[in-house]
Design a protein that fits this description.
elongated; 590 residues; Arc Repressor Mutant, subunit A; single chain; ten-stranded antiparallel β-sheet; alpha+beta; six-stranded antiparallel β-sheet; 12 helices; disordered N terminus
């Protein structure tokens, strides 16, 4: 099928309401490409409703023969099929059923006569009404379209015009598709249904297959990457910070956040908003009036239901992070532009979460390069270039990269006489066991081999520099002070340390420290953790200034001078303020 080459949607450029986003957007490259997950595809045929009429006639014949009306939980069996879009050679039952549409026509007596839609779906066991659980899906709904249609109030049914401004007469098909790489592939799957039915039933469905390019639309497009479970918390931290930026960024923004994070099955975190471009992401296609055609976008990280029942070697054990164009039906010509926008949001969030190729997990459809930079399963996957955001996120990054903050971080990582700061930061950044959640002093003590008081002292200094943040929730939990702090530390640690090697080195140092204290018969300082006094959460969404009240008395005295200088710097405006990030999850071991 040839697609319409017109450009019905304006190139997005940048949001005109956001001057800060009017500059060129920088590009980045990753050595893997996200995969399309779900999408709804809509098309009309140039068949004068021939396909709909023939399928409706077949439905009536089957109803009469079976003595019941085909429905979703008890469809008619119209053959078996091993479709090209499923894995392997397994055959599935093809179910055929119908339901009311609310549209119809007027007969000679001016009475309303309703049309039922006609639906095709794969089933594993059609007798039990058990739908097929294949990952890739293609479920079809057929309706008539034409000027004769009315609603139940006998008013004309004004279905949407095509991209060229015309309303065509012909069978309307809605297809719910999973894992198609393109619209052409999705349309091929639809045609495959009708060819199969002709072969099974002797019908002439495929003779009506003549898609009108101007009527090919899509909505709900999803793009995803699968990564290991150990990195799930880091991605959720980044999404949580995005939610905070969206909800506080501009008046009138519409955005929601959904969270279901637990040790049990089906963990999920999602953010959807109408204004992702206000964070500097690509705005997406617009109509002639300048309105965005995609009304809302979503990013979510989730695990499949019952994921914990699978072993770590099974990809179903691991989460997906996915972006979705939630609202808005777009013509086929906007497909690549929407994919670019979704990939920009997705890949930038993964980059901010320090997701590297070593964290990626292959499944039946997403197959990134392996750790030796060789394509898996003998296939070649191109690198993906995407546009990273400017605007507010970039402004926060620039603030974090201020000279004062740079000197402090450089001092902790490069010029300190002790490995303690680096060990703590590397554990928080790369240790998979905490899964991105907040950790306790006890956890850091066990991982680094430092004494409890040393952990507390070093964390306090890192918190004073606004690299880490402490929160009192029964005991003291440690997390990143902000997303910008996380990003900057991540970049520095990546430059100087190999994650696996540094964790092994820390483990060896910890063993040596524990052994040394045992030999000296010193106390191992297995101190019961108690809440630090005056550890206060700042309620402001963006400001988190470590004050003297966050320190214990035994540390306060020796750092009074440093704190006084810090307060002077902050009061003079020389230090920028950063968001109170909920990084490493909002404190808690859940």
């Amino acid at each position: 099928m040839s697609t319409n080459s017109s450009k019905p949607h304006k190139d997005s450029g940048n949001t005109p309401e956001s001057p800060e986003n009017s500059t060129d957007i920088p590009t980045q490259i990753v050595n893997y490409t996200p995969r399309t997950h779900g999408v709804d595809v809509f098309v009309q045929l140039r068949d004068d409703n021939g396909l709909y009429n023939e399928s409706a006639d077949l439905q009536r014949q089957l109803d009469t023969k079976a003595g019941y009306h085909g429905r979703s939980d008890h469809p008619h069996h119209v053959g078996d099929m091993s479709p090209s879009w499923t894995q392997g050679d397994e055959e599935y039952h093809v179910g055929f059923y119908s339901s009311s549409t609310g549209i119809g026509h007027l007969n000679k007596k001016e009475e309303f006569v309703g049309y039922d839609d006609q639906r095709f779906r794969l089933f594993e066991d059609i007798d039990d009404g058990k739908a097929a659980t294949t990952a890739a899906k293609c479920t079809l709904t057929l309706e008539p379209r034409g000027p004769h249609l009315v609603n139940k109030q006998k008013k004309p049914f004004g279905y949407p015009k095509a991209v060229d401004g015309q309303r065509y007469t012909g069978t309307y098909i809605k297809a719910q598709i999973s894992y198609a790489t393109s619209l052409d592939e999705a349309l091929g799957w639809i045609g495959e249904y009708f060819q199969h039915l002709d072969n099974e039933l002797g019908t002439s469905f495929i003779s009506h297959w003549d898609p009108i390019p101007e009527t090919v639309y899509f909505s709900g497009l999803e793009r995803y990457v699968r990564h290991d479970l150990a990195s799930m918390g880091r991605v959720i931290n980044t999404e949580r910070n995005t939610a905070r930026l969206v909800h506080t960024g501009n008046e009138g923004e519409e955005g929601t956040m959904e969270e279901d994070i637990r040790h049990g099955d089906h963990s999920l975190f999602s953010v959807n908003s109408t204004e992702f471009e206000e964070l500097g992401y690509l705005a997406g296609p617009r109509d002639d009036n300048g309105r965005l055609r995609v009304k809302k976008d979503k990013i979510k990280t989730y695990r499949t239901k019952n994921a914990n029942r699978y072993s770590e070697d099974n990809y179903r054990h691991h989460p997906k992070t996915e972006t979705k164009a939630v609202k808005g039906k777009l013509h086929a010509s906007a497909w690549e532009e929407v994919i670019d926008r979704l990939d920009s949001i997705l890949l930038h969030h993964l980059d901010m979460s320090a997701i590297g190729e070593e964290n990626l997990v292959s499944d039946d459809y997403f197959q990134p390069r392996d750790k030796d930079d060789e394509p898996e399963e003998n296939e070649t996957f191109e690198s993906r270039e995407y546009q990273a955001p400017t605007g507010r996120i970039a402004s926060l990054r620039e603030s974090w990269e201020g000279e004062d903050a740079r000197r402090k971080l450089e001092g902790f990582i490069l010029h300190s006489n002790t490995e303690s700061y680096k060990d703590i930061l590397n554990i928080l950044m790369f240790d998979p066991e905490h899964e991105g959640r907040s950790v306790t002093y006890k956890y850091l003590q066990e991982k680094t081999g430092l004494s409890y008081s040393s952990v507390r002292r070093n964390v306090t200094k890192l918190a004073d520099a606004r690299i880490l943040h402490k929160v009192n929730e029964g005991c003291v939990f440690v997390r990143w002070a902000s997303q910008t702090a996380f990003e900057r530390v991540r970049d520095w640690l990546r430059d100087f340390f190999d994650p696996k090697q540094v964790l092994n080195d820390i483990k060896e140092r910890a063993k040596a420290k524990f052994a040394s204290r045992t030999e000296k018969d010193d106390e191992s300082e297995e101190i019961e953790e108690e809440p630090e006094k005056d550890v206060v959460e700042n309620d402001d969404d963006f400001i988190d200034i470590s004050s003297g009240g966050m320190l214990d008395d035994d540390v306060q005295a020796e750092l009074n001078e440093a704190f006084e200088e810090a307060r002077k710097q902050m009061e003079s405006g020389k230090w920028d303020d950063f968001g109170t990030a909920r990084s490493m999850t909002d404190g808690g071991t859940d």
